[in-house]
Design the sequence.
């Protein structure tokens, strides 16, 4: 069955790349009283290191649930989730928090910046939580990441003093804090205008070109087309990709 | 010094809602200040110890029926073992014209008082036929004229005698007698009292001891009794000997009762402040559920989330403790001054009870942290997926009804999955469209090739 919409595949990632993410028979069932809802039904999905993968599908199809599985935000009801060789479905909450901070950079649709902290402080947060390096080194690295996303002159700005695009750049700088191998975007451009969204995508594409694996959910088919691979989810199943 | 971002978050949470923070800190400051009430006994003791020394307060007082003593006998009593000083007093209880029971205390000398000294505060010491009015008479309105006036007393023979008031004086026992027993107290020479009562002799024998321990005082009372049995006219003690415990002073038990009532106020103030702070932290954490989710998503563990909010609570406490400690020092001194002035007509020197101040600061810092624990624990245990969903993130579980029907709600730590509704785009997005174009173009040109991996 063809993926939803007319998607044109981007070039395949190198065949030699090794597997970074492995979802094997993953099920996720939500229970609310007597109601049960299967968000994922025995999904098998493999993503290699260095790939740029877009996940598309209709609302409620389960694409965000896949993101939750890969980032350890949620746990599968059945099946295994392996990321970077580690079975994250078996980790405790504390282990997951630590693992997530060091191995995954997450970019949210609504930026999720802490409003009382400056851009620099927001960008340094994962480093503070992971206790990497000295305080000076942490701030230095966060400042460098902000410079990389074009916000070197707005380190001391609060989120309320930044535009939506700039806030998303801060969120990307924050996701780069611990130099993770995997960047996960949950509709990272969904709250931006077309032009800013294209710019954001460029940033993600450049990160991918630098060797980072990028996995993102999007409703924008034109952005999905630019991924190496498009995974289509429908009714909790992989319908294509 | 640069603070970590996590520490800055704890601090910035204080100023996020300034009015709320102000009232929380103010409530804590009042509670911590009320802990200063525990300093009252110490401060009062210090004040009274100074007064006891100035008054040369008796350690042992024995009451006898009017007993004339010669100078040699007075000298002999002062030389008994363990006796440091001795002064006999003649007392006469009668009525004044205003109808108040009046006690006239006759001293052997106002110039050389060695026990239970009366301090002349205004006017002069009374000569023959004159009286000195206790300062508390005027303060409580006991019908005694002021300095230069007269007081009319009923003499032992039933006639009314008018005596000039030479001045006002202060004595711990006399003052407490006025306040507690609702009498007027006057001081005069022993011959004046003898003339007034018509019965010569001393009725109270006051001793200061070298060793004022209960055992030594009891032994000394026995020695005094043995000596008095050799004095002609002695028929025995007319009341139980009064032995003042070390550190005791007249009115101490009443003062202790008053302070006990004040401790209840302290307890209520503390409980009120801690409940308020617990509620404040619950509200603060409830408001910050999306931020908690974000922190968890970027790597914060439960312990780190707890630390963020415990630090906020301790900052609340620290500010309240510092303000409260200063307030408490002033409050305890003001109350000590009030009690010393109203009960004993003395002024209290400024003094600080350091252990109480330290305890109040420690309590002020630790108490709020403990009060915030339930809210903080709840924050740390918030389920990430549902909290992110409530925060309006695109991630998070979708319930059976799908995302479109989902209300934006805060999850409980053990809550079931709740459907989510997308949050409308923030105002900043519109701002971006209007003003952010040049910045975006500039940002888009910045290459990422310079990114260095650690």
Sequence:
């Amino acid at each position: 069955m063809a993926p939803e919409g007319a998607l044109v595949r981007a070039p395949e990632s190198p065949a030699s790349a090794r597997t970074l993410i492995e979802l094997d028979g993953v099920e996720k069932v939500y229970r609310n009283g007597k109601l049960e809802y299967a968000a994922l039904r025995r999904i098998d999905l493999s993503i290699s290191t260095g790939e740029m993968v877009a996940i598309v599908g209709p609302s409620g199809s389960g694409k965000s649930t896949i993101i939750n599985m890969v980032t350890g935000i949620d746990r599968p009801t059945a099946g295994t989730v392996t990321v970077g060789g580690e079975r994250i479905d078996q980790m405790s909450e504390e282990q997951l928090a630590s693992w997530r901070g060091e191995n995954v950079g997450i970019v949210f649709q609504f930026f999720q910046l802490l409003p009382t902290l400056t851009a620099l402080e927001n960008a340094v947060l994962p480093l503070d939580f992971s206790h990497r390096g000295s305080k000076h080194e942490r701030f230095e690295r966060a400042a460098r990441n902000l410079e990389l996303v074009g916000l070197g002159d707005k380190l001391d700005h609060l989120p309320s003093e930044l535009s939506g695009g700039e806030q998303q750049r801060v969120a990307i700088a924050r996701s780069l804090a611990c130099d993770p191998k995997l960047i996960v975007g949950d509709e990272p451009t969904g709250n931006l205008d077309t032009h800013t969204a294209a710019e954001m995508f460029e940033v993600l594409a450049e990160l991918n070109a630098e060797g980072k694996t990028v996995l993102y959910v999007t409703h924008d088919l034109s952005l999905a087309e630019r991924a190496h691979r498009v995974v289509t989810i429908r009714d909790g199943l992989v319908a294509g990709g | 010094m640069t603070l970590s971002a996590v520490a800055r978050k704890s601090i910035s949470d204080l100023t996020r809602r300034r009015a709320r923070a102000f009232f929380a800190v103010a409530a804590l400051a009042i509670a911590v200040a009320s802990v200063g009430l525990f300093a009252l006994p110490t401060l009062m003791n210090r004040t009274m110890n100074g007064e006891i020394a100035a008054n040369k307060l008796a350690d042992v007082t024995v009451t006898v029926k009017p007993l004339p003593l010669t100078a040699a006998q007075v000298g002999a009593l002062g030389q008994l073992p363990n006796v440091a000083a001795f002064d006999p007093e003649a007392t006469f209880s009668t009525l004044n014209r205003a109808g108040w029971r009046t006690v006239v205390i006759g001293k052997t000398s106002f110039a050389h008082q060695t026990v239970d000294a009366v301090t002349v505060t205004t006017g002069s010491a009374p000569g023959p036929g004159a009286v000195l009015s206790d300062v508390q008479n005027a303060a409580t309105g006991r019908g005694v004229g002021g300095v230069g006036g007269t007081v009319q007393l009923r003499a032992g023979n039933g006639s009314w005698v008018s005596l000039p008031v030479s001045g006002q004086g202060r004595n711990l026992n006399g003052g407490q007698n006025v306040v507690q027993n609702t009498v007027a107290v006057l001081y005069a020479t022993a011959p004046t009292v003898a003339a007034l009562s018509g019965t010569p002799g001393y009725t109270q024998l006051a001793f200061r001891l070298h060793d004022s321990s209960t055992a030594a005082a009891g032994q000394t009372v026995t020695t005094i009794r043995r000596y008095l049995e050799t004095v002609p006219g002695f028929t025995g003690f007319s009341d139980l000997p009064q032995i003042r415990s070390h550190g005791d002073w007249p009115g101490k038990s009443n003062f202790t009762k008053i302070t006990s009532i004040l401790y209840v106020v302290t307890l209520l103030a503390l409980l009120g402040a801690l409940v308020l702070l617990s509620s404040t932290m619950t509200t603060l954490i409830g408001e910050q559920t999306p931020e908690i989710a974000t922190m968890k998503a970027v790597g914060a563990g439960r312990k780190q989330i707890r630390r963020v909010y415990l630090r906020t609570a301790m900052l609340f406490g620290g500010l309240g403790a510092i303000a409260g400690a200063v307030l408490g020092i002033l409050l305890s001194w003001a109350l000590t001054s009030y009690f010393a002035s109203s009960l004993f007509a003395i002024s209290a020197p400024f003094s600080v009870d350091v252990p109480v101040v330290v305890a109040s600061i420690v309590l002020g810092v630790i108490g709020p942290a403990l009060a915030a624990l339930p809210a903080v624990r709840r924050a740390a245990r918030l389920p990430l997926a549902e909290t992110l969903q409530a925060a309006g993130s695109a991630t998070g579980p979708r319930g059976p009804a799908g995302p479109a029907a989902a209300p934006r709600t805060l999850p409980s730590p053990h809550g079931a999955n709740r459907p989510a509704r997308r949050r409308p785009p923030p105002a900043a997005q519109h701002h971006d469209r209007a003003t952010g174009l040049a910045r975006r173009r500039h940002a888009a040109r910045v290459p990422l090739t310079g990114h260095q991996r650690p």
